[in-house]
Design a protein that fits this description.
Layout (H helix, E strand, L loop, with lengths): L4 H30 L3 H27 L5 H9 L5 H25 L15 H24 L4 H15 L8 H7 L13 H22 L8
Helix pairs in contact: 1-2, 1-4, 2-6, 3-4, 3-8, 4-7, 5-6, 5-8
Amino acid sequence: MTYSLPRRLTAEAIGSFFLFAGVIGSGVMAEALAQGNDALALLANTVATGAILFVLIAMLGPISGAHFNPAVTLAFALRREIEIRPALAFVLVQVAAGVIGAFAVHLMFDMPILQFSTKARAGLGQWTGEFVATFGLVLTILVLLRTRVEAIPMAVALYITSAYWFTSSTSFANPAITLVRSLSDSFAGIAPADVPGFVLAQIAGAIAATALAGWLVKSGKQED
């Protein structure tokens, strides 16, 4: 079933709101309860993020494709599976709804609504982590679209759950959530000055994954 653009954008807004709120809110709660144990806080943050991802993709995927992520939208635009104007609208909605999600978390936890993160996340190791995290995420989605589409909700949730731990950056893998996390001086935050480096690495990872997936699952009579 093909849904109208307003419905698709609404699905993207709902998904981005709850995903971004889930990441930031679970970070706030985890840090408060972990009593200084960063490993325990990260574990709690990871479980909550993976869980909400599965629910949102399963629920909203049939409507909008459940991008919730400009890197994913970019991949589909490069494959010409979404036109430029709808793609730009997707990105704007992802960012706007994500900002509202962050503000809702601040309101729920009695924190200042408008704030900026002071958590430094920069350097080659961090950027490499974001390239790897985004590359793997986009590759997972694009390959499974051709091989096992029904597995995408669980696969993406499990991939992000794992990538929180095997990447140096704890796997933001999403330019919109990177920007939004700079607006929260909490466990999941990133200093605004460090956002451009993360976003560039994420875009590079998405482009590389799109190119590889296009070759890996290419259909045709002639094999390379």
